[in-house]
Design goal:
By secondary structure, the chain is mainly α. The chain contains 18 helices and 2 strands. Helix 1 packs across helix 7, helix 4 packs parallel to helix 6 and helix 4 packs antiparallel against helix 10.
Length: 468
C-alpha cells in the first residue's frame, strides 16, 4: 500500500474540491455525451454503419476500463498532482483532436487517447480528495466527488443534444476551456503530495486486456457482415482467447497486476464484479437502443433525444439514497437484485407501451424512469459492497477493478446491441429494437439472480470443544 502525505497545507479546500470535481465531471460527461451525437457524426463523416460508429463509444470505454487500475497505481507511485495534471492535459488535447477529426477512425483514435487521460486523472483526483483536503471534510468531499460523476451522467445527453444542434464537434470543444482552466488552477491551488515509490504497474497486462476486449467487441460487431465462421471472425475469437490467457498469466506473475487473482477468492467481490458487468451490459443496451429508437424511428433531433433521455439519469441519485436506506433493513444482494429487476421491467414497460399511436409520455418515459430508478438502486449498492470482504490494503484496488468491469460491460453491451440491431436499426424498423429490449431484459434478469450471491456470508462462531 502506498503512503501519501500532503507536503504543504491546503489553503483553499473549496477551490481544490471544485477543481477535482470539474475534471472528473468532464471525463464522465464524455462517456455519455456522445450517444446522442452518433447519427450526426456518421452523417458528417460519411459513415452510416452502426457497427463502425459504435467504436466512438467502445474505444473510450475499453481504454478507460483497462487503464484505470494501472494508471491509479502509477499516480500513487509518482505523484497524484502530477498525474492529475498530465491526465487532464492529455484529455484536453485529445478533445481538440476529436473536434478536428475528419475521419471516423482518426476520431476513434483520439477517443482512445481521451480515455487514457481520463483513466489517469480519475484515480489521481480521488486520491487528492483523500489526502490534501482536511480530514474532517473528507467523507463529505468524497460524496461530492462521486456525485459529480452521477451529475455528468444525467447532464450528458442534454448537453450533447444542445451542442449537436450547432455541430457535433462542439461536444469536444466544450472540454477545452474547462480543461485549460482546471490545469492552470490546479497548478496554483492543488498542493503536492509526497509519495512512496511502489512497483510499476503491469502495462503488458493492460495491453493484453485491451486487445482481448477490443477483438471480442470487433468480432461481435463485424461478424454479421463477415460471417460468424469466416476467417476474420475466427481470428478475432482466437486472439481474444489467447490475449485473455496471456493476461491471466501476466497477472499471476507480476508484482503489481491489473487484477490480483487472489481477489477473486473473496465471494462477495467475485459476485459483485459479475453483477456489475451484467448490469452494465443491460444498461448500455437500454440507453443506446432508446436513443437510436427515438432518432431513427421517430426522427427526433439530438436535442429532443437528449431532453427525452435526461429524466432517467435524474432518478439515479434519488434512488441511490433510497438504496442506502433499504440497505439498513435488507441485504445488499436483495437491494441490488431489486434494482436489477427494475432495470428489466423498464424495457418491458416500453414494449407494453408501443403501439400505432405510441408517444414519448406513454411508450418511453415510464419505462425509462423505472430503468433509472433501478440503476440508482443496483449500481451504487453492488459497487460499494464489492470491497466488503477485502482486507484494507486491497480495498482501493478492488474498487478500481469493479469500476473497470463496469466499463467492459458497457463496451460489450454496445457491441451486442449492434449485432441485434444490425443495419436494419438505421432504417427505423421496429422489430430489431424489440429484440434489443428483450436482450436487455434477459441480461438484467440474469444480473438479478447473480446479485443474490453478493451478500456476505455470516461469520460462523466456533463452538468450544467441537474439534474437527
Amino acid at each position: 500500500m502506498v503512503a501519501a502525505q500532503p507536503s504543504e497545507p491546503t489553503a483553499h479546500p473549496g477551490i481544490v474540491l471544485a477543481i477535482l470535481c470539474s475534471a472528473v465531471f468532464m471525463a464522465t460527461l464524455d462517456m455519455f455525451i456522445v450517444n446522442v451525437a452518433l447519427g450526426d457524426i456518421g452523417t458528417d463523416l460519411g459513415q452510416s454503419s452502426l457497427s463502425h460508429l459504435s467504436w466512438v463509444l467502445n474505444g473510450y470505454t475499453i481504454f478507460y476500463g483497462a487503464l484505470l487500475v494501472p494508471a491509479g497505481r502509477l499516480t500513487d507511485s509518482f505523484g497524484r498532482k502530477a498525474g492529475f495534471q498530465v491526465g487532464l492535459a492529455l484529455f484536453t488535447l485529445a478533445s481538440l483532436g476529436c473536434a478536428l477529426s475528419g475521419n471516423l477512425w482518426v476520431l476513434v483514435a483520439f477517443r482512445c487517447l481521451q480515455a487514457a487521460g481520463a483513466a489517469v486523472l480519475t484515480p489521481a483526483s480521488l486520491g487528492l480528495v483523500l489526502t490534501v483536503l482536511p480530514a474532517e471534510t473528507r467523507t463529505r468531499s468524497t460524496r461530492i466527488w462521486a456525485s459529480s460523476g452521477a451529475l455528468a451522467g444525467a447532464a450528458g445527453p442534454v448537453v450533447g443534444g444542445l451542442l449537436v444542434d450547432t455541430s457535433w464537434r462542439g461536444i469536444f470543444l466544450l472540454n477545452l476551456p474547462i480543461g485549460v482552466a482546471a490545469i492552470l488552477t490546479a497548478a496554483r491551488f492543488v498542493p503536492s503530495v509526497k509519495q512512496q515509490r511502489a512497483h510499476l504497474p503491469d502495462f503488458l497486462g493492460s495491453a493484453l486486456l485491451i486487445v482481448a476486449i477490443a477483438t471480442l467487441a470487433l468480432g461481435l460487431s463485424e461478424a454479421p457482415g463477415w460471417g460468424w465462421g469466416s476467417t476474420a471472425a475466427t481470428l478475432c475469437w482466437v486472439i481474444t482467447v489467447a490475449a485473455l490467457g496471456a493476461f491471466v498469466f501476466s497477472s499471476a506473475r507480476h508484482p503489481s497486476p491489473v487484477i490480483e487473482l487472489s481477489l477473486l477468492k473473496h465471494r462477495t467481490f467475485a459476485w459483485s464484479n459479475l453483477t456489475v458487468l451484467l448490469l452494465s451490459v443491460a444498461f448500455a443496451a437500454e440507453l443506446l437502443s432508446g436513443i437510436l429508437f427515438m432518432q431513427q424511428r421517430w426522427h427526433w433531433s439530438a436535442l429532443q433525444t437528449g431532453l427525452a433521455v435526461a429524466p432517467g439519469p435524474c432518478m439515479v441519485p434519488l434512488f441511490a439514497m433510497v438504496g442506502q436506506r433499504l440497505g439498513r433493513r435488507y441485504s445488499v444482494g436483495v437491494v441490488t437484485g431489486l434494482g436489477a429487476l427494475m432495470m428489466a421491467l423498464g424495457p418491458a414497460l416500453i414494449l407494453l407501451g408501443l403501439g400505432p399511436e405510441a408517444g414519448y409520455l406513454t411508450a418511453i418515459l415510464p419505462g425509462w424512469l423505472l430503468t433509472g430508478a433501478g440503476v440508482g438502486l443496483a449500481f451504487p449498492t453492488a459497487i460499494a459492497s464489492a470491497t466488503a470482504e477485502l482486507p484494507p490494503h486491497q480495498s482501493s484496488t478492488g474498487s478500481a477493478v469493479v469500476n473497470m468491469g463496469r466499463q467492459v460491460g458497457m463496451a460489450l453491451g454496445t457491441s451486442l446491441l449492434v449485432v441485434i440491431l444490425g443495419e436494419a436499426g438505421a432504417t427505423g424498423q421496429l422489430a430489431p429494437f424489440i429484440h434489443g429490449w428483450w436482450f436487455a431484459i434477459l441480461v438484467a434478469l440474469v444480473a438479478a439472480v447473480s446479485a443474490l450471491g453478493i451478500t456476505p456470508r455470516p461469520r460462523t462462531r466456533e463452538v468450544p470443544g467441537a474439534a474437527g
